[in-house]
Write a structure and sequence with these properties.
Elements (H helix, E strand, L loop, with lengths): L4 H16 L23 H9 L9 H21 L21
Helix pairs in contact: 2-3
Length: 103
């Protein structure tokens, strides 16, 4: 079976979501429960992305898919905070430096 770019991105999203999941090592530190208004419901796009994960693991439950969709939505919001719309580069912005290592 030949993998596609969409399947790769879906797998990468799953890895990213799994990295954000709490681990047993951090279980001893109490974390405050988020308020219900702080976490919006996942968008239809995030839910569709989570449903695509079933192609990689058919045993995922609906609760796990909803958790993945919530994580995807949080990452989308984080991306909006890192690069808000309307704050793109302008002509006067210098290019990013490129470093190369000689052989």
């Amino acid at each position: 079976m030949e993998s596609t770019r969409k399947e790769f991105l879906a797998a990468a999203g799953l890895v990213g979501a799994s990295l954000l999941a709490p681990t047993a090592a951090h279980a001893d530190t109490p974390t405050p429960a988020p308020s219900p208004s702080a976490t919006p419901a996942p968008s239809p796009a995030a839910r569709a992305f989570a449903q695509r994960m079933k192609a990689f693991d058919a045993t995922l439950t609906d609760a796990q898919l909803e958790n993945i969709a919530g994580d995807v939505e949080q990452l989308y919001e984080l991306g909006g905070q890192l690069r808000p719309k309307g704050h793109g580069l302008v002509n006067a912005d210098p290019p990013a430096p490129q470093f190369e290592v000689g052989a």
